[in-house]
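User: Second chain of the day. Same drill as before.
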Amino acid sequence: MRRSDSWRQWLGSLLCLVVLMLALPVQAESQPIGLVVDGQKLAMDVPPLIVAGRTLVPLRAIMEALGARVEWNQGNKTATVFHEGHVVALPEGSGKAVVDGAEVTLDVPAQTVSGRMLVPVRFLVEATGGEVDWSASDNTVYLAVKNEALKTTLRITKANRELPGKPPELWKAASEMDFQLTAPSREYTAVDGVVHVEGRVAARLNGARIVLVVQGPNGRGRETTLPIGNGMFSGDIQLVEGAGSYTIEVYAPTQANDGRPSRVTDFRAKNVSTRLRQSPYYPRGYAESGLNLELPTNGQIAVDTAFGLRGTADVKLNGRFLWLEVEKGSAKWSSYVQIRDGKFDGQAHLGGGAGLHWVTVLLQDGIGSSSYAPVAYVPVMNTGVKAVRQPLVVMPFGQEAQLRVEPLPDSVPDGYVPVAGQLMSRETAASVLVRVTRGGEHDDVFIPLSEGRFAGRVPLALGAGDYELSFMIPWTSMEWREAATAHVTNQAVQVVRGFRYSAKAIEQNLQLTAPATDPSTAGAKLL
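Assistant: Same format as last time:
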């Protein structure tokens, strides 16, 4: 690539500003020129000048507005611009500039006025496609930015001027592992969807991980990690929920094998980007889990209604289940995928219609275990507009208990759902609990078991609408565990009324006489 082409490419990515007209009307020195970039009036202690038909603008004012750093060397009278690994040197009074080692000729030499370097706008832009307007009424050049990258840079610069600039505060535990956070350098920083995190810790922690808990605008904290190597850690954290304020809590171990890291600092990030990003978060358990999820490491995960999860696993995990818990707002859906022959392939149902869903992937602790540990948090964009009801899902409990539920209707006309099934359990149980939920309210319906089987009708007592039915089984004398979920629509407008029985009443075979008009006595016993 020719040097001039390379220079233009760098200027486009660094500045992406606009071409100013080759010449502006010559104004009297008593009428300083103003400069407004994309609606932001730049604060300049030295105004732009017009020299030999070319407009010169203050280098530092524009460069710092674009997020660059400018240094002045009094010894050789040179201004140097640093931005994202690129370097531009501008000697005072010279018609040349050096851009990443390549010499470039300027239309008009750079000049110093009142201690400020002024350079020709043409040098800064080179036809990158914006718009310019000259307002004689207020003697101002208006620059309209079309490049989205520069628009974002300007928003970040403006936001950082308004946010507190002090560094993140270290907690007491930080001294125990020689923890230092070098990026971000501010307690509250503005970013474009990604916050870069890096720092140093004691070398004894090599091989361990820094834990970051990212809490986005929806208020839920999710964990991801950065590996420690050579006493350092570094990585980019995607802010996946779009624009808004994020809080990032940082935890570090005191020893390499410490499974309970201590909180060492926290900081906030203001995401000025409205673009949603779908990069997964991997918590501590993933690296040691023996799983390999086939997920994109960057870019969007966009699907229509169902998210497919597949991958490979250590053969020692054969027979275990992955629990896929889907969330959108306060609504949740679940599904299960079993690992077989070192592989898994299943789907998570996205029931909340279009928009961002979170899929938490949890690994079963052991075959038959009821405990699961998170191994990934996956943000998924559902492109399907219509909210789709989740099918019946039965949770695996292994040898301790197995619940079978016969298929349920999608909707009922009269406010009652017929349910039936079988519970095979090591423990003797008298009933199955069906929790009926709608709009944050719920009713508990106990259905008696006879020789391990149950059958009855569950009332949808809150009128017409969509309901979630959670089938729960007795786990201990004091605990019930969810074993299956389903969703049913009630078409009946009237509110269902009837007797409500407790589990104890069912154990003692308590029966009450109901009015003949009350259909709730036909099977299910109500709490």
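Residues 148-162 form the longest helix (15 residues).

User: Great, on to the next one.
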